[in-house]
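Incident log, entry 3
Record: TPT-domain-containing protein (339 residues)
Problem: checksum mismatch between cached and fresh output.
Input:
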Amino acid sequence: MNPNPEEETESIPLTSMKDGEAEPSTSTPTLPAPVSAPAAKSKPKISTAVIIPIWMALSVSVILYNNYLYNTLEFKFPVFLVTWHLTFATIGTRVLQRTTNLLDGTKNVNMNKDMFLRSILPIGLLFSGSLILSNSAYLYLSISYIQMLKAFNAVAVLLISWVFRIAEPNRRLGLIVCMISFGVAMTSHGEMKFNLLGFIIQAAAVCFEASRLVMIEILLHGMKMDPLVSLHYYAPVCALINLVVLPFTEGLAPFYQLARIGPLILISNAAIAFFLNVAAVFLVGVGSGLILTLAGVLKDILLVTATVAFFSAQVTLLQVVGYSIALAGLVLFRTTGGK
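Fresh output:
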């Protein structure tokens, strides 16, 4: 959650604008922040060696758990699941706000009606679209292939930032764009169970997510929010948006399946996604840009490997080569072209 709850929404920082810390590469629902700022009170510290494995385990668990719900338990209701995750996150962030200092960053945000309507609401609409579409893709595509397609997020963010003129094109970034695009094209060509509808849905999810990240840079430039503070503001907005969409997409069908799924699975699933966002706050605070980038790449590799080992996913040699090229381009983007 993130709160990519349903999957880890990949947080791709924009490039060529300013220097700063890199954010963790997550599927989501972890919310990115334009600027990472310290809270009013010091947060408890966790060493890098401890928080990175925790973050990676939670990130992989969210994706595998959601896939288990969709395809093993046959609970094929991504809109409902996203809505439930966001509702859980809404309650969770407010509990943490009253019992810990993890959300002291909210004191630095001057939230008013104008800011909500002009910034939070439009970004929330894009975020809801990203979450719903990215989760719907799991109904048609394998986890491994979706992770490979997510490598294109960086390219989409960069292209949109060029269109909005908040980053200037240059030859080096252009070559990185071509490198990542070529790698992703190879993985698609090598996919043995390619589904056109699933590909279109995931491509649309990438566009929504990239647009959201660019809109954050435009509308909330300089705003001091960490991932958990962002979740505090966006979760209730997105939950309400999804509640409006739910009757027109899935209707009452998911509610008839709740007794079969049981409260334990629903609560544990949402809790893992929520704790992923908590872990992201500590991760951003202790890791350098290079460490966070490498941790994100390693997490993606482990996730693809796990799907092959435990879910009998089929990955061709062409996909391995293409994904390696895309990941190498992503590392170059993060370490030389991105912050």
